[in-house]
Amino acid sequence: MMGSAAPLVVCASLWWWWSAGASSSSLGSVATTVLGPSVREALELASLEQRLEDFNIRQAFAGATVQALLAVPITAAFEGTGPKKLQYSDRVSLPSSLGAEIARQRAEVPWHFQVSTLQGKRASCCCCPVDFRAPENVVFLPEWMFRHLGAKPFDVLLVTQVKLRQGQKLSLKATGAKVPQTRVVLEAELKYYSSATLGAKFKINFQGTDYDLEVVDCVGQGTGTNQQDESARCDCLSIQDSDVEIDIL
């Protein structure tokens, strides 16, 4: 988790980062006039990546496990060299610098992150890293996360390490075809999800068939001696290595 000074660092850096965008637009206008729109797009992306790198360096210097990253979809080509079923999971690929900072701080596993939008309607969801092999300033996400966040490829997302409550109860709603052999299927397919985000609509795939599910309620375990009394509804839960009660509505 971030220390008490980290939110101030993030806010100040984000203000600087967004305000620096004016020069990029001016440069892009000149490039479009002289060389055409494709060059403008390349210049704007290069300028954006530089501002992201500057922001992320500031966060690393402050010891904060938070980065602003360009969102890129996980594709079949990505899955071809790594674990399967990434589209049916909450797994993301993050830069090695973020993994190194978490390891340096000896953070407890499982490692969870909150991915949040910075523009338009604010939205967020939780996830777990599949690896730390993404290029610097980039995060690879499954398609359902893009839909949940209302994000597009190459949008900038804020990725922050978080400590989630262990799940006690998770309520899901089938939004398409009814899930057959519900208990068997969920046990087989939810193992690809380390977290659950309230309101998220995601997919599982069982024997080649997709099933659409929505998270409609999340109840976390208590943290004291009276676990039942301290349980509470949460926006995100950890469901990895947890004895979670799962309901299908």
Task: Note down, in words, how this protein is organized.
The protein has a six-stranded mixed sheet. Strand 3 and strand 4 form a beta hairpin. The N terminus is likely disordered. It contains eight helices and 13 strands. It is globular and about 50 Å long. The chain has 249 residues and is an alpha+beta fold. Helix 1 packs antiparallel against helix 3 and helix 2 runs antiparallel to helix 3.
Task: Describe the protein's topology.
Elements lengths: L5 H14 L1 H15 L1 H25 L4 E8 L2 H4 L11 E5 H9 L7 E6 L6 E11 L3 E4 L1 H7 L6 E7 L4 E8 L7 H8 L5 E3 L3 E6 L2 E12 L6 H4 L1 E2 L2 E3 L6 E4 L1
Helix pairs in contact: 1-3, 2-3
Q: Main sheet, how many strands, which sense, barrel?
A: 6 strands, mixed
Distance between the termini: 34 Å
Given as residue ranges, the uncertain stretches (5+ residues, pLDDT < 50) are 1-35
Helix content: 25-40%
Portion of residues in beta strands equals 25-35%
Brief write-up:
The protein has 249 residues and is an alpha+beta fold. 35% of the residues lie in helices and 32% in strands.
Based on the model shown, name its key terms.
249 residues; alpha+beta; six-stranded mixed beta sheet; five-stranded mixed beta sheet; 8 helices; 35% helix; 32% strand; disordered N terminus
